Amino acid sequence: MARKYSNSELEAYLDEGLEPQAMAELERALRGEPDLLHRLAEINRRRDAGVHTLGEIWRRHRLSCPSREQMGSFLLGALHGDAEDYIRFHLETIGCRYCLANVADLERRQKEESTTTTARRSRYFQSSAGYLRQ
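and the corresponding structure tokens:
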């Protein structure tokens, strides 16, 4: 028996808001179930016509997602209390793919900057070694 998908799951699919495995399962179902594909097309037509629900607006504009600056502060350990707890919940429990990608990018940049800073300090030290008194 085919799995019954809700309209909110189909909307999340359109917004790429499902887990990768759920996205793949839904794509397989769409290929084999014309009725499901028709429902998805109808949801997409309604969106194109400018008819939106509050939930759609909330998801599309990622109103529950922390800002990139807040996530950077979280990674640096500069957030405490409710703000830190919310970001941890958002990343670990909700598993927001958008925010997880942002955090991965921030961590990569943080690592690159650390390497660059170390190299710069080494060059400064080497260029000024002859000027230092012993």
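(Above: one complete record from the training split.) The first helix runs from residue 7 to 14.
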